[in-house]
Design goal:
There is one protein chain. This protein is an all-alpha fold. The chain has one domain. About 75% of the residues lie in helices and about 0% in strands. It starts with a helix and ends in a 21-residue tail after the last helix.
Length: about 350
């Protein structure tokens, strides 16, 4: 290997490593969310998590935020409402299922999105992709049956709903004319602001667990550590790393590395959370991982190339926003939004 090739490989590794760390962090976010969240504190945790991150995003992108048009602001507000739905489904889902199931089921977004996009465009996806999609769906069915053949848990169904909501978010981002060409950071900031407003308003409704500050007063040191981890690493670190990496490499490469998130979710869930999916569940987990990985590759063929590129970018932005659930366009990195974040 020549000196030039060695230097190029080293630069690629230095770019890939931080992105891979984002996937690792996102994979651990399900465990972190379970550590700090209960049924009664979902809204409080969502408000507090993003209340920490939002000021940083506003300060970092203030100049470009001011340059957005009224139409772009309204478009971001609409996307923020969808994003709020994603966060609510994901967070309530995590509370009611295992970290392993949550991380694997949400990865179906990478299967659902190309299928939905192909239906809208009226184009056919490659047969290998459809086979991969079937493999993933079969995997989820087995994953939710780790303790025997029973009805999926409420949390599993909520995570499935979150995957579908992410698909809607990705498609909306890619097709809404009002937000095309808008600055990625500004769009992420406005969407998060819109989502946090929804969470704050809902927190005042009877039976929702009380106000964020009431929940914060009851948090112990462990709760605050989990919350800071979600805010600083799963949101801010993830977002800014994607913004940096997408300019150093390609959106497709970033998306490929971020696609390892469900692997890490399973690793953390089984190794640290003590998840025991059983033989059926383990087989299902392997099928989901294989199916989503195969699907990403299969959809990149000639028949699915345009769909995959748009999906990869949008899913990355949505992940950034959502994580900032989790998973980007050339100038729109992931939240917890991809250019479709996880929160």
């Amino acid at each position: 290997m020549t000196a030039t090739a060695t230097a190029r490989a080293r630069r690629a590794w230095l770019t890939d490593l931080p992105v891979l760390l984002v996937a690792v962090v996102w994979g651990s976010s399900y465990l972190a969310a379970k550590g700090v969240t209960t049924t009664q504190t979902v809204l409080a945790v969502l408000v507090l998590r993003f209340a920490v991150a939002l000021p940083v995003l506003v300060i970092a992108g203030w100049r470009k935020l001011r340059a957005l048009s009224g139409t772009q602001v309204r478009g971001a507000g609409v996307l923020g409402l969808i994003l709020a739905g994603i966060f609510l489904l994901e967070t309530y889902g995590v509370v009611h299922t295992s970290a392993t199931n949550a991380g694997l089921i949400i990865s179906l977004t990478m299967i659902f999105t190309p299928i939905a996009e192909s239906r809208i465009r009226g184009t056919a996806l490659p047969r290998p992709f459809m086979a991969a999609a079937g493999l993933s769906v079969a995997g989820v069915l087995l994953l939710t049956q780790g303790a025997g053949f029973t009805a999926p848990s409420l949390g599993d169904l909520l995570m499935l709903g979150a995957a579908l909501a992410r698909t809607v978010h990705v498609l909306a981002m890619s097709r809404m004319k009002s937000v095309r060409g808008a600055d990625s950071m500004s769009m992420t900031t406005l969407q998060l602001g819109s989502a946090v407003t929804v969470f704050a308003l809902l927190s005042f409704a009877p039976g929702t667990g009380g106000t964020p500050w009431a929940a914060a007063a009851a948090f112990d040191v462990s709760d605050w550590l989990w919350l800071v981890y979600l805010s600083v690493f799963c949101t801010l670190f993830a977002f800014f790393t994607q913004m940096w990496a997408v300019r150093k490499t390609s959106p497709s490469r970033v998306s490929l590395l971020l696609g390892t998130e469900p692997v890490w979710a399973a690793v953390f869930g089984i190794a640290l959370a003590g998840d025991r999916p059983g033989l059926l569940g383990l087989a299902g987990a392997l099928l989901v991982l294989a199916g989503t990985a195969w699907g990403r590759t299969a959809a990149a063929g000639p028949a699915g190339e345009a769909t995959t590129e748009a999906t990869a970018e949008a899913v990355t932005e949505t992940e950034a926003t959502a994580s900032v659930v989790e998973p980007a366009q050339p100038d729109r990195a992931h939240p917890g939004l991809e250019p479709a974040g996880r929160a």
